[in-house]
Amino acid sequence: IIFRSVGEYDQLIRLIFKEFEIPVFIHERLALVENGPIQSLYRFLLLIQSDWKLEHVLYLFKSSFFSGHVESEDTHSFELAAHRRNILSGRLSWEELCLDKTVSPRASTFVKFLASWHDKLIAAENIKKLIFVIDEFLEQFQYSPHRDFEEKDIDQQAFNCFREIGRSRSEEHTSELQSR
Q1: Phi-psi region of 71 (alpha: psi -120 to 50; beta: other; left: phi over 0)
Q2: What is the pLDDT of residues 104-113, one digit of tens each?
Q3: Is the distance from CB of 138 to CB of 145 less than 8 angstroms?
Q4: With contact defined as beta carbons under 8 Å apart, do 52 and 90 qualify?
């Protein structure tokens, strides 16, 4: 079935098709940067790549997708403590900051949560395990991409995934330059 746009019926269609065991694929041509869970994954990957830069740590603290982990007052006290200590990056620096008495237990737990996912990603021994960890990460947001693929297709799936992330980053950079 081809629709011009499914809009708000996306979840309903998925639910009904799943109930009747009918395979479904919905593609709305949304840029990845418009997809919240993917944007959170992208920022999390940037966090790891950038040695836990302040801007990425705070983005994840403030993301609505992690609202079950920290409240705004936790984020605020964490950010103030970071500024007092002039912490700009470094996972170890953030973990040490959690020992500060002004940092809430929820904020400390959230940093440990991020660190545990960092460790899981780094520990992935091959592309199949990496894809599994990424899917597991996304499932926290009730976002689980439906993947039916054979072992031989994994390299192509990974290539496509990283190509899309790169494309969305390029689109984000272009729109950032245009807004200047």
Answers
A1: beta
A2: 999 999 999 9
A3: yes
A4: yes
